[in-house]
Amino acid sequence: MPQVSVVLATFNEEKNLAKCLDTVQDLADEIVIVDGTSSDKTVEIAKKYGARVIVRENPKIFHINKQIAIDAATKDWILQLDADEHLTPQLTAEIKSEIRNPRLPKPGTGGQAKSLPAGRQGEINGYWLPRKNFFLGRFLKKGGQYPDYTLRLYRKGMGKLPQKDVHEQAEVKGEVGYLKNPLLHYPYKDFSEYFLKWKRYNSIFADQIKAERSSKSIFGKIFMFPKYLVGLPVFWFLKIYLRHLGFVDLLPGFVFAFFSGLRFPFSYLMSLK
Question: By C-alpha distance, which of 82, 113, 108 is closest to 97?
Fold first, then answer.
């Protein structure tokens, strides 16, 4: 049976970490955590679960610490998680089955897979996991939020994070497949926590917009104003709420679509400071 390293980057996650690590006990042969010098009991909790903990600075792009955890892992496969994510028994069983007998996805089947021909079972190097996102009291079903595929499981040495953006995906060498059972994501206990994280992510987005503006001509800079204040927010809201049926999720769906669009003018105005 191939062995699995579960890796995380943490910062002040004492409220989430134990619940996350409880769900990986039947899968993890090793737990590696890079902590960004937490001021709470995160490190203490991690060590209670037998995790190998590396304490360092907490960079604005936290994928830097995630990559350090990935590089420090020693087992055959790496499962990268956030502290607010949980495995289910069904997902754990599927992961064990898949890494024992890797499969390739059928083109255009939205995650269905077929067995590899004999002699090619070593070629699949990663898996996309469908993710359910809990928001304002319910798991979102629409608005592009389910299945929210994220590339988190890959062979040691075959996956790497670009470390440039908070919403980036891992880059995996070779073929990747798709799992069926969802990863459960509990990112916000209430709207106030959502809003705090929303503002923090937007401060990073504002830096990216500022860098974009510095490379533009005077006409390009003028065009950015209507683009970020009107075009992108309206387009993004309609895309999530109508095209991806966000209205099916009622009030949570509307709030999610609204703030997904609002991030563009908010971040643009922040970038002007």
Answer: 113
Q: Which residue in the block uniquely carries the two structure tokens 């209670």?
A: 48
Encoded tokens for 145: 């939020």
pLDDT confidence bin for 104, thresholds 50/70/90: low
Q: State the CATH architecture for 4-185.
A: Alpha-Beta Complex (3.90)
What does the domain layout of the chain look like in residue ranges? 4-185, 191-271
- Print burial letters for 173-186: b (CB count within 10 Å at least 16), e (below 16): eeebbbbebbbbbb
Q: Among 121, 104, 80, which residue's Cα sits nearest to residue 177?
A: 104
The per-residue pLDDT for range 111-123, each reduced to its tens digit, is 444 433 333 445 7
Catalogue the E-assigned strands of the chain.
4-10, 30-35, 52-55, 77-80, 85-86, 103-105, 113-115, 124-129, 131-135, 138-139, 150-155, 159-160, 171-172, 175-178, 183-185
Average pLDDT over residues 194-212: 94
CB 130 within 8 A of CB 149: yes
CA distance 213 to 198: 22
Q: Minimal CA–CA distance to 152: which of 134, 132, 127, 177?
A: 127
Q: What residues contact residue 158 under an 8 Å CB cut-off, 6+ apart?
A: 125, 126, 172, 173, 174
Global pTM?
0.85
pLDDT tens string 220-245: 999 999 999 999 999 999 999 999 99
Of the CA atoms within 13 Å of residue 214, those in its CB half-sphere come to 8
